Amino acid sequence: MKAIYLTGFMGAGKTTIGKALSETLQLPVIDTDEYIIQQVGKTIPAIFEEEGEATFRQYERTFLREFPVNDVIITTGGGIVIQEENRKWMKEHGIVFNLYCEIDEVFSRVSIDGSRPLLKTDDKSKVRNLFESRSAFYQEAHFTIDTTYKNIEEIVKEIQNKLKNLESGDNV
Ligand SMILES: Nc1ncnc2c1ncn2[C@@H]1O[C@H](COP(=O)(O)OP(=O)(O)OP(=O)(O)O)[C@@H](O)[C@H]1O
Ligand SMILES: O=C(O)C1=C[C@@H](O)[C@@H](O)[C@H](O)C1
Ligand SMILES: [Mg+2]
């Protein structure tokens, strides 16, 4: 099976759903954020602070191309879609699921604990603007799954159903 890429805004549940889907489908999962942290040996806030966001984006772009493109789930960082070549890569090499979550629910899911540098602001309108500005990029995915009022089990089932339809001949 082609790689399954999960995209979406911060807090949409990519990492969480990826782990659950990995158990259900018995496929390995790679999380781009966790991979970068391991490879670079720094936390994401430290990379942003010491090397800058542009360098973080280079890591995302480089590592994305090093991951397998078959029989794997790749859960991405929320900003992977900013780079057009990443959107293209994922669509060419895999099946892309955009996990959508309404922004107010995002705010209640994620804490401003410093682990996400782009959420480290008191100004919610900045985060809303970021969310809006990326919306079209996320929607380039093969499928969009609204996760807003769903639990993990329901979301995994929905993804599984889409994959089953593909196996039985539907095109993406
Ligand atoms: N469907 C859901 N319902 C309620 N809470 C959820 C759901 N999915 C994820 N969460 C919670 O939201 C928080 C963020 O989830 P997660 O880290 O998986 O998001 P993410 O999309 O990977 O974010 P990031 O882009 O920052 O990596 C976690 O505390 C998680 O438990
Ligand atoms: O949306 C974003 O730009 C980000 C999301 C996180 O997954 C991390 O990749 C990082 O905090 C940046
Ligand atoms: Mg994540």
From TrEMBL:
Q: State the signal peptide span.
A: none
Molecular functions per Gene Ontology: ATP binding; magnesium ion binding; shikimate kinase activity
Task: Tell me the HAMAP family matching this sequence.
Answer: Shikimate_kinase
Family per record: Belongs to the shikimate kinase family.
Source taxon at top rank: Bacteria
Q: Where in the cell is it found?
A: Cytoplasm
- Matches recorded under Pfam families: SKI
| Keywords from the named record | Amino-acid biosynthesis, Aromatic amino acid biosynthesis, ATP-binding, Cytoplasm, Kinase, Magnesium, Metal-binding, Nucleotide-binding, Transferase
Protein name, UniProt field: Shikimate kinase
EC numbers for this chain: 2.7.1.71
Q: Which residues bind substrate?
A: D33, R57, G78, R134
